[in-house]
Structure formats: structure tokens, C-alpha cells
Amino acid sequence: MKIVYLPLDERPCNYAFAGQIAQGTPVRLAVPEKHILGDKKKPADLTGVMDFLTRETVDADACVLSLDMLLYGGIIPSRIHHMTRQTLLQRLEAVRHLKQRNPRLKIFAFALIMRCPSYSSADEEPDYYETCGREIFLTGQVKHKKALGLLSETEAQALLDTYQEKTGPYLADFENRRSLNREILEKILTEYRDCFQVLVIPQDDSSAYGYTTVDREYLKQAVAATGREPIPMYPGADEVGMSLLANAACALMGRNPAVKLVYAHQDAPKMVPLYEDRPVGQTIPVLLATSGCHVTEEMPDITLYLNYPAHSPVEVWQDPSEGYKLRDLKGFCDRIAADVRAGKLAAVADCAYCNGGDAELVQMLAQRTELEELAAYAGWNTSSNTLGTVACQAVFAWLFGKSAQHALFTAQRLYEDVGYCGHVRREVTALIEPMGFGYFNVGEENGQVAQLVRQRLEVYMQTLLPRMAEKYAIDRCRMPWRRMFEVDLTLRSRG
């Protein structure tokens, strides 16, 4: 079966993970050449993107389609572009053309609600966000709360006047772009909906109040006005392509797995993860449905083990809260290992910490079973990023069986999520400052910092997971977007 895959951007989590999961299975994934997909704030070659879709979808069974890539040239360009309404609508019409040329093509698409981070940084936003990003976020919160009656006119205006001292020259640019992007999303949801087999609207870096939530509620009302079923809108971004790839594979195979949820603590479903706007117990069923799965209590095809604290989640570099101590990690790991020994598909979503895997968990689990025997593992960035990665890998293991490539991808996740994100990133960040580098500037993609990361990661993994380090060696280690946040890491078997 052939699936065309247009990613959200060129980073490994969006560009490479899906292909690594599909490798060695009956799914033939057609992916554009990386050089046409842009570079961080530089948008993709949109003509090249369209040529790729036109060429590859004509004989494809399905297409996993990032509408942000199709329309804007990637996730970051969607936040900084100056495209006109007419240009965007012309590009959107390409979706209908793809269906006309191949009526049997099943399109699994996603389009993001533009985010509004709560902090000041221009790394992934317009340049002015460096000096007033926090105030733009707070402006959105105040306007939202005022509309809901949670702030009086006087209270709201006093706060807005304060924020305007920084946002004054820039707020119109930010709000005008949001308005245009929202208008295009409304068109997608209402006038183009029938083009899609599945359509989801993720929201990146969200909170309970502010611009993103206002946009989401507006779009929900727009869909409701059509009298049709709601479209899923939930926290997520970089994992959504993988979720939809799993969904497409299930649709083409005519099978959908039943998934049982097992939490590390019974109160975890009520917890709101960092950078998300609702309890994880509300997000998981929607995210699993996006991945072609459904939740069950009995006779599961896959058991999804969810490593969350009971409450009060923190970043991986912070001290754990009391909510972490309430978990029964020993019993949790015993259950996972028992499933593996019984030949069952046990997948681990390591969402205890934001932005890195839980070293305590994986060490404890490694004492009980071979980690490569898991149906899936991930523990990176946000809760939804991890969940979508795990869901896709587990679905492919269920549909097509586990293989050496499956084990390799699991090992790569452990090296990157627990090793790099959980430990080595902080260590190397401290070491490179005397070298003239910093968190957002590591020089070359494959330069001194990448080599230092590789060396430190090899040493750390030999200590953390020695059996795994004996089996796998680092094959490639690069720094995408020339910063410390992510790493382009692949392994090779030593055997």
C-alpha cells in the first residue's frame, strides 16, 4: 500500500519518525525530498511541495497531509508569514485537485490553530516576540477573560494599557495574522471538509484562556452552524502526522486495535499536563481515535501504560513534586514486564516529565525485561507528542509485527528521550557556553556541539542502560535548527 506523507516541517520528529516506524512494513511511504521543506523560519519551496503531491498522489492509496506545510511552508512560517487571503485560498484549492485526479485517495489531514506562547522568545515566533511575547500572551488572556465576564471593563483596560507599552507597535501584526489563519481554518472545516477522510485541528502550546482558546471555540461554533459532527480539536502538533499515519494504515488494512489504558496512578487522568489546557484523561481517547484506535477495558489488542504523576507535573530538569512519589513504579513495571513475557503488546507512554523521559522508570523496567521488546516507547517534549509517537509505533507493531527495525526505533527513542532530552541536553548546554555557543546557537548542524553531544550521550547510556549500549552505537548525531532543543539521532546495531 502506498501512503504519501507531507510533514509539518523538516525536523526529525515530523520528517523522519514516520518513515522509521513504517520501514520494513508493507506500507510504502512517499516523502518529499528534505531540501524542498525549508529550514526553520525559511518556508518550504511551495511549488516543489505541490509538484511532489501532484506526482505522488495520483497512484496512492492515502495521503497524510499537513495543511500548514501545504499552505504556509511549515509550522514556523505559519506564524510569521505575510501571505494574502487570495494566495492561501488558491493553495487550499489544491486539495480538491488531488481528489479529482485520484478519487479513491483517502486524505488524512491536519491544520494547527496558531499558538501563542506564554514566554518572550523569537526562536519560533516573529522577531518582536523576543521583547513582548509574554505581554502578547497576557493581552490575549485579558481579552478572553473580559469577554467571559471574569474581568471588568476597568480591570481589563488597566492591564491592557500596561501591556501596550511593549506590544504597541506589534500587536496588530500578530492579531491580523491570527485572524487570517483562523479564516482559512474555518474554510477548511466548512467548505473543504468533504475532501478529507479524517480531519483534525490540533492546538500547539495551549492554555485555558487566551488567543488559542478563543480561536478554538470560534471554530467549534462554525462547525456547529453547519449541523455536522464536531471535528476533533485537542493539544498536539509534532506527533499528529504519526497519529494520522497509524489511522491511514488501519483504514487500508480494515482493522482497528482496541487499547486498554493503565496509569501509574489512579488520579493521573485528572492531571493537566504542562503546555496543555485540559486533563489528560480527556485528551487520550481523542488522540487514540485520531490514531485509528479505540479504548477498551477488556481483551485489548494493545495495553498502553501511561507514566504520569498523580498531580503537579514538572519539567524533566526540575525536582519532582509530591505527585511523583505517589506512583507505584515497581508494580507498574512488574505489569509491563509480565505482559512482555506473555507475548502481549505493551506500549509505554513515558509522560511523567515534560521535555524528557523518566530515567528511574526505564532503569527499573530494564531490570525486568528487554526494553526493545516493548510494543512502543517514547518520552519527549509534551504529553501529546509522546502519546502520538507511541500510538503510531504500537499500531504498526499490531498490524505488521515487531522487527529489528522496530527494536531500533525503540532504542533510538530511549537514547534521545531519556538520554539526550532527560540528561545530556542540560549537561552539554552548560559546557558549550565557554566555547562561545548557547542554547539557541550551536554553530553548525554537524559541528563541535554535535560531536560533544554524541560523546556525552554514549557515556551516559553506558551507565543508564548498559545492555542496550552494548547492542547499539550512535550512527548520526546532528543538531537541527542549530539549537539544543532537539537532536537528529539515529543508531545502528553493533551485531
Walk me through what this model shows.
- This protein is an alpha/beta fold and 495 residues long.
- Helix content is 48%, strand content 13%.
- The protein is built from 20 helices and 15 strands.
- It has helices at 12-15, 17-22, 46-57, 67-72, 77-80, 85-92, 94-101, 129-147, 153-167, 171-190, 211-225, 240-253, 280-290, 322-325, 329-341, 359-366, 383-400, 404-432, 448-464, 466-471; strands at 2-6, 28-30, 62-66, 106-110, 198-203, 233-235, 258-263, 294-295, 302-306, 314-315, 346-349, 353-354, 376-378, 472-478, 488-493.
- The strands form four sheets. The protein has a six-stranded parallel beta sheet with strand order 2-1-3-4-5-6, sandwiched between helices. The chain has a five-stranded parallel beta sheet with strand order 8-7-9-11-13, sandwiched between helices. It has a two-stranded parallel ribbon with strand order 10-12.
- It is globular and about 60 Å long.
- The mean pLDDT is 97.
Mean pLDDT: 97
Order of adjacent strands in the largest pleated sheet = 2-1-3-4-5-6
Structural class: alpha/beta
Distance between the termini: 31 Å
Q: Main β-sheet, in a few words?
A: 6 strands, parallel
- What Rg do the Cα atoms give? 22 Å
Spans where pLDDT lies below 50 across 5 or more residues: none
Dominant shape: globular
Individual helix count: 20
- Sheet-strand content, in percent, reads 5-15%
Tell me roughly what share of residues is in helical segments.
40-55%
Total count of strands: 15
